[in-house]
Amino acid sequence: MDTFPQLLLHNAKTRPERAAVREKSRGIWQTLTWRALADEVRTLAAALSAAGVQRGDHVGLLGENRPRLFAAMAAVQWLGGVVVPLFADTSAAEIAGPIQSAKIGVVFAENQEQVDKLLAAMPQCPTIRHIVYDDDIGMRHYRQSHVQAYDALLARGRDAMAQIAGQLDAELARGSAKDPAALFFTSGTTGPARGVVHAHGALIDRARAAAALDGLNDEDTSVAYLPPAWMVQHMFAYALPMVTGSCVCCPESSETMLNDMREMGPTVFLAPPRVLEALFTQVTSRINNTGGFKRDLYEHYMAVAQRVGPRTLAGESLDLSDSLAYSLGNVLMYGPLRDVMGMGRLRVAYSAGEATGPDLLLFYRSMGVNLKQLYGSTETGLFVTAQAEGRFKAGAVGVAAAGVEIAFGAEREVLVRSPGLFLGYHGDTEGTHSATNADGWFHTGDAGWLDEDGQLHIVDRVQDVGALTGGALFAPKLLENKLKFSHYINEAVAFGNGRDHVCVLIDIDAEAVGNWADKEGLTYTGFADLANLDEVYGLIGEVIAKANAALAQDPQLANAQIHRFLLLQKRLEPDDGELTRMRKVRRDVVSRRFASLVQALYDGSPMGHVDAEVRYADGSVGTISADIKIRDAKTFAAQTRQKAA
User: Fold this and answer.
1) Spatial separation of the C-alpha atoms in residues 44 and 153, rounded to whole Å
2) Is the pLDDT of residue 415 over 80?
3) The pTM is what?
4) Contact at 8 Å (CB) between 495 and 484?
5) 472 and 578, same structural domain?
6) DSSP labels for 366-402?
7) Does 322 have pLDDT greater than 90?
8) CATH number where 26 lies
9) Which of 170, 171, 169, 187 is CA-nearest to residue 179?
10) What range does the domain containing 433 cover?
């Protein structure tokens, strides 16, 4: 069982009638068993072989998580091909780059929208020979010979099966753990996206390590709702179910995600910080919209949860009063909240993708959600460190996972050796050598340190960590996460390296701030108008003051408090290049685009002016021009701790 197709056949043999994939379609849940999935994959592999797909070929996957997407992955890998998941929300112009880089010949596309993008990109992508679509809505009048339906491809596979059955068996047996399995393009947070090649063995090894860590097994159910092009989602939706024999569920759409989650009742859940923040915002907004008694009840029991909840998850003994208070809170508040968020059956949840603020982690753990942070990168596989059961520590990302070694280089850069390391960057031998030294250590680009318990603490990206002119540490992600714990703030971008104080650009959460403004009886006509209200500036000023008060208690960060801020009059968007497709901030883009505002923050101006290019939903490009208010933030004297006598 060295490859994913070999694991698939093992599951089909040992648990043939167990659910492998569930999908909600037109309001009804459809189930595909392991036996049925294996049969479909074998037929699809026959069709792809007849279409000319060979060992080493790259095959693209463009769409959301769907059973047929998983089947296509396994069929391509059966033949020794390499799957290349692509971000479904990219434009035709963006998608051309990865297709050209990987010389993709066949693409599986979910629906008409994705087919149209591929057809628009084809003049720049002459390697594309076949486009296979799943959903046939709107596809009736497409007559291009290279565009065909998934069902038609399956029919060709059934016709070809008798002639190439032996060849299929030989290709399956030929598969090796060292074979390339998938090519993932990085998010491009700090530079151009790179193609990261992973072998079957590396992905399977990390999936097995994750399963052993928390006892994941074939009784588990997970939900696949994040972009398949994100390596971590690929691991949770494809690799882990293959290794454990568990079931993965695909919600009908992003709009029905929460309702579908309540129906499927996952036991394992993956979420990047932005999803956890969005759920937290929804909960907080709903509570704020309720009457005084319910809000008082929520605040009371959340205070109990913050005091008792983490100790309960850690298995610590509680005195009788705390035990009774938390149990009552679980009946009246925590349990219903978990059910509302679809987390009623969760055994374990994971946060990955970027640093998760300690306050956000503690919120979920206080409610009884066993949320843990994974640390890793596309190059290092699923994870480098994980928070083991009973060893959770706020601010740390856990101890080294099984088989992983950690060291530190210049500027405290985290170096990693792991069975899950990538094979290299596609078409970039020089880049691969510069990222991995002769002894096999991968340079993560993250600055960090190990504490006395062997737990890793990540400060920030090495290139982003700096110091104020007074010598105080400047780690923007630490400051931004404190601000983003507020449900009124969607994104924050901090500046301060080489300067005498810290300033931030704030992207407000339109829904949460809008609800607050409505309750306050304020009038506004849109996002820009809302962000320009003096009252909203006052609201965000209070959030920043609270964060500064907490920073004043930290000896390392007390002198890195936020001094000035402004509220952006446009959202930070992936389509404008300010965020990656995984919604991570591209600091270099934001710094360039809003350079005039950053300058105004530091030259003492009460206003800043910006002319910024924006891309609209129809693909057209425009420019916004705005004068933006700048406000001073409340700061606090550093609180020095008394030394023990």
Assistant:
1) 7
2) yes
3) 0.90
4) no
5) yes
6) HTT--EEEEE--GGG-S-SEE--TT---TT---EEPT
7) no
8) 3.40.50.12780
9) 171
10) 395-462
